[in-house]
Amino acid sequence: KAGVTQTPRYLIKTRGQQVTLSCSPISGHRSVSWYQQTPGQGLQFLFEYFSETQRNKGNFPGRFSGRQFSNSRSEMNVSTLELGDSALYLCASSFVDRISTDTQYFGPGTRLTVL
Amino acid sequence: AQRVTQPEKLLSVFKGAPVELKCNYSYSGSPELFWYVQYSRQRLQLLLRHISRESIKGFTADLNKGETSFHLKKPFAQEEDSAMYYCALSGGETSGSRLTFGEGTQLTVNP
Q1: What is the pLDDT of residues B82-98, one digit of tens each?
Q2: Do B104 and A58 lie within an 8 Å CB cutoff?
Q3: Are the beta carbons of A107 and A92 closer than 8 angstroms?
Q4: Spatial CA neighbour of B81 closest among B28, B27, B16
Q5: Is A45–B104 a contact, with Cβ atoms under 8 angstroms apart?
Q6: What DSSP assignment string belongs to A7-53?
Q7: pLDDT per residue over A81-108, tens digit each?
Q8: Is A42's CB within 8 Å of B100's CB?
Q9: What's the CA gap between B68 and A21, in Å, rounded?
């Protein structure tokens, strides 16, 4: 099976702009989670989508939003970009068997730089 | 609140020496614990999880609920074990797929 893919791999934006990142999960996986990775804060959970519904949300401002489509592909959007949003954004997909937390398979990430 | 602590940011050992990467957690319920690894220029991947009780690439980890720890151990380190290691916690079914990560430990195995 193909792994989790993320596009684009690199992005450069300026403050105040908005950005949309895309994630295609492994075929058959219905859960997609997003994480932000920075040198100072490490890996932080943004949100999770399952069957087109947000199932879980981390402690990020409302500028960070996401959605999931019927084919399980997911997008996340960041509006009114700030310098501190510069980070590696990781997407992870999992099958979800309801018995335990499924293994999450991570994508390569999108490197966002805000100038 | 759930929290994962990896006290060592950097760990350096020689090839063939034992290695232990420490992980302590804070969680009020019954957590699921994981170790993820990221090799140079590769994506983050699962190394092992406590419920599987497996040994992967010679690594083992035992969940100690009394000490709230999930330390990763390997008796004889290899150069190819050099990587970034993250301990992670999930609250199980109630938390969905949400993972709380520690800050990571960069392991370097010297020849």
Answers
A1: 999 999 998 765 666 78
A2: no
A3: yes
A4: B16
A5: no
A6: E-SEEEE-TT--EEEEEEPPTT--EEEEEEEETTTEEEEEEEEETTE
A7: 999 999 999 999 998 765 556 788 999 9
A8: no
A9: 37
Pairwise CA distance, residues B22 & A103, whole Å:
21
Q: Could you give phi then psi for residue A78, rounded to 5 degrees?
A: -125, 120
A83 touches chain B (CB under 8 A): no
Residue B27's beta-bridge partner residues?
none
Minimal C-alpha gap between A19 and chain B (Å) = 23
Quote the strand ranges of chain B, DSSP E.
3-5, 10-14, 19-21, 24-26, 32-38, 45-49, 60-61, 72-74, 83-90, 100-101, 105-110
Q: CA A85, CA A100: separation in Å to the nearest integer?
A: 32
H or E segment to which residue A78 belongs: strand A74-78
